[in-house]
What we know:
By secondary structure, this protein is mostly beta strands. The chain is built from eight helices and 49 strands. A hairpin with a 4-residue loop joins strand 31 and strand 32 (601-613).
Amino acid sequence: xxxxxxxxxxxxxxxxxxxxxxxxxxxxxxxxxxxxxxxxxxxxxxxxxxxxxxxxxxxxxxxxxxxxxxxxxxxxxxxxxxxxxxxxxxxxxxxxxxxxxxxxxxxxxxxxxxxxxxxxxxxxxxxxxxxxxxxxxxxxxxxxxxxxxxxxxxxxxxxxxxxxxxxxxxxxxxxxxxxxxxxxxxxxxxxxxxxxxxxxxxxxxxxxxxxxxxxxxxxxxxxxxxxxxxxxxxxxxxxxxxxxxxxxxxxxxxxxxxxxxxxxxxxxxxxxxxxxxxxxxxxxxxxxxxxxxxxxxxxxxxxxxxxxxxxxxxxxxxxxxxxxxxxxxxxxxxxxxxxxxxxxxxxxxxxxxxxxxxxxxxxxxxxxxxxxxxxxxxxxxxxxxxxxxxxxxxxxxxxxxxxxxxxxxxxxxxxxxxxxxxxxxxxxxxxxxxxxxxxxxxxxxxxxxxxxxxxxxxxxxxxxxxxxxxxxxxxxxxxxxxxxxxxxxxxxxxxxxxxxxxxxxxxxxxxxxxxxxxxxxxxxxxxxxxxxxxxxxxxxxxxxxxxxxxxxxxxxxxxxxxxxxxxxxxxxxxxxxxxxxxxxxxxxxxxxxxxxxxxxxxxxxxxxxxxxxxxxxxxxxxxxxxxxxxxxxxxxxxxxxxxxxxxxxxxxxxxxxxxxxxxxxxxxxxxxxxxxxxxxxxxxxxxxxxxxxxxxxxxxxxxxxxxxxxxxxxxxxxxxxxxxxxxxxxxxxxxxxxxxxxxxxxxxxxxxxxxxxxxxxxxxxxxxxxxxxxxxxxxxxxxxxxxxxxxxxxxxxxxxxxxxxxxxxxxxxxxxxxxxxxxxxxxxxxxxxxxxxxxx
Length: 840
């Protein structure tokens, strides 16, 4: 059993938290709403004091201090200051928000306040909705998108169903890209990151074409000449036996599998925007974007950080440790030559392509605004990866490829008043049509069948073909009354009707695996699901002065049910093993937002308590490579968040900001959860799953040989530290020549947490402080800027999410288990980049 922080006395543990949070004061950071408001406008920087950021958390333009929502608003300047060009970089600086990238399945896990989604099923929706220019992007693989040249980014905490729809149970990341301005703007930016030897560049051109029409084109490209993670893999033999039955010896061929890549990547994105304002009341904004993102090993960041013996169970020559290094192998070239979507040289990889078109229409009259957002987005993700994420010899090796596409069309229409008197209202409708196609091929187990009818099946153990088509209809409305001065009461509800039609087929499975009862090929499993939900919300807001906002809210949310496209169909499996029901959230939130001393001091406090029912848990069975999603009980997240910002006018250009957050995210009654590999009955794996009733019962030594389920009651949810904090300082000095010199140091603290959803204590990550910093020099004419940016300067290793390493661990549900090796999705190591920007 590894050492756990909980073993320390409570008083010492509390002291450590206080010391670590206080220690960051000297080095600074914040990503709180107040922390992000700094430096939002050049005018505020010149005059001192704290500026505001306009957000649309309630689909109305309000400042971060006026809106009765817990929101982190990151300005365009802040995004550029730290080169926050993707969501992973944003999460690395934002307390209570984390993202883990995965080599398959959903592609990522987005976690906010300790609530997120597992990663192993592509059919599982995220608990944190990503909204781009008003349109919903529903896949974890959206993290592959390059978000640059932004107007702003908002992170809304807690359920947000009323305004943003389904799958916003934990919160929303709302991204607004930049629009054309009223004058010519040219930006050219290039930089070099030293750790991964990455070269990158951006180009932006924005100009009016007439009095009513403007255009903006932005492009970004980068290429790494090294990886962030050291590759420890070595050439390994992978023997296959050409036979269709274990009763015959077959012919053995030994293939050679070289080391995989180190994750080096390249990307290119382009976005074009047309903004047309033919009248004072009508605005049309058309955006189109295209992007590609490729790397040479999607599992490069999958690090085996804990092993019971200190080394990999499957390769004792490789030590397990918390370091920025991983091991994996290429697909043998003779197998890669026949495996669909494999690189012919056997190299692993990930090729992501996407494009989207978005049309926003706004008709703004005196007291009524009618808005429309029409969107179509498409992406294709092709993976080639070493399925067990370790460099090892022998038949247990796993080499897999996936090809999936996603299509989504959506239309939202909304009308809202802006009377500002006794009442205001908002009403709207939403439609979405989606289609996911998923195909996968796996070579494993040393299997070979030269008699397979199609040549590409020769080395396959199994293949999958699955699809889900979905339709969503929603209506929503809100009514606001102001019965007395300074008091606002808002109530609303969203109705959602959703259908999903799916199928799953294993076109081919190796005859040996069929005989063993693992796969059932050639049988199509079909699913037709319908869901309905009402998500009400109510908020009371009191503003005793223009500088104080006090609010209380009751919120609910709905996360879609679905179908596990990446599951496994065996003779003993059925439709219930693929389908899962919706997850729902409800609870309360209250807060006070204040500004003091003539806008030199800002203090905000938020408290919340939310319960999540019918919790969706997806898990990987390491013994047979099976994935399944279940609804297992409940969870509750409750906490307090304190934010502050100081910007004294006596010291123009200086800003100090930070936050301290306490979040307790724990499971309620969750008796159907799987055991982690090697968990004994004494460690809580003491239930037995009953397929006939889809329930669990206590282990019975007289009739059962082993248990296979646990009750997670009281256990922390995944990636949910009790304490997080940030603290930071920035300073901008105006030199006599008119040039500007600026610097900032930003620190983020995280307490310890368990990285997986199943309470495995061996996945616990240690508390850490990560430090980011930036120094810049801008010429007097503001045409040139030189910048040095450092991230994770403390070089802290931590893992987000993860799973039991395949083919490790044993004795689950017995009295003497062997814990599986633990694989996690690692943070990026220390990075330092130099950047130069030209503006005209």
